[in-house]
Amino acid sequence: MLRRMIIPALFGLVGTAMLVALGLWQLDRADQKAALIAELETRIFDSPVDLPQQLDPDQHRYLPVEVEGRFLPQHVFVLSAQKAAGPGFHLVQAFETAEGRRILVERGYLPESARAGLSIPSDDTTRLAGNLHWPRDINQHTPDYDAGRNLLFGRDVAEMASLLDTEEVHLVLRAAQPSDPAITPVPVYDVTIPDPHLGYAVQWFLMAVAWVGMTVFFLWRIRTQRD
Length: 227
Description:
This protein is α/β, with parallel strands linked by helices. The protein is 37% helix and 27% strand.
């Protein structure tokens, strides 16, 4: 009987060890992600720097920058809502820097009632401060761009850059000189990076518990059949 139980016992032991190891690995990944998020949240409020020539979304995400230049006429509205103000839009507009680069600037929130009377300045020199961001709020269920209303239903930097003929560089405005009282900036205050690793770790540990339970049950069946 003992010989019949050796292989199932070893199988159960090895399987449990592997599942526990995977759970521990996910806990380590969760710690790494928490450290990254803490670093990025600290970066958000650093002193702004000039816009780097070469940009990497992983390296420069949430980097505070200052740019000077002028807004261009090209713009798009992104469907949004604010708790206190209700439905409205985020205005994303093309911006030409003093060095001649064309980037995206998310100027802020605009109530639905104010859209019709909005003027789009494109000549005055403006100095902007904000954070670089590469949001992607869309999925397979997000409606396509509504050309008739010049409306997007979620932010995707590649799509917005294509629409407005800019680099895939997205600046979320914090402050502007001069500012526009009709538009309320919605600056970056925290990091929005999904962190599923803790949930994965719990799943692996639950699977390990189930594996132990099945192994014990199987060994018990072997023993009772022998008896």
